[in-house]
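User: Teach me something about this protein's shape.
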Amino acid sequence: MVINKYYSISELTKEFGVSTRTLRFYEDEGLLHPERRGRTRLYRVADRRILIEILRGRRIGFTVAEIREILQVYKEPPGEVGQLNLLMKMVNEKRAELRQKRKDIEETLQELDGVEEACLTRLAEIGVGT
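Assistant: First, the predicted structure itself:
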């Protein structure tokens, strides 16, 4: 016999450290589909698993739209294979984007170092101690 396990909104907010507003947002975005009993939202085990994936995706920088796309691919042919291929593609794109940002930050830091050095040199030339 399978027992249907439900989670309340407060159980999930406590477990994952998110606000009720966050869960309602993901529901509004069509990512979570809790059952309703009156005004009460009841989240299934599947909703909890999806929430784990949503939060993981957000931590690594995916947008809600990208997360939706990943989740949608799982539901349609080719299913999990398609989802995994899409996810690998998106991971590679995100990695390349982050590497470019890191390169840009390093270049900016070098430029700032150069500006600071030029300022210190000029201050020394005009006799102002720092």
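Now, about its shape. The chain has a mean pLDDT of 91. The chain has one domain: 6-97. If you'd like, I can walk through any region in more detail.
User: That's plenty for now, thanks!
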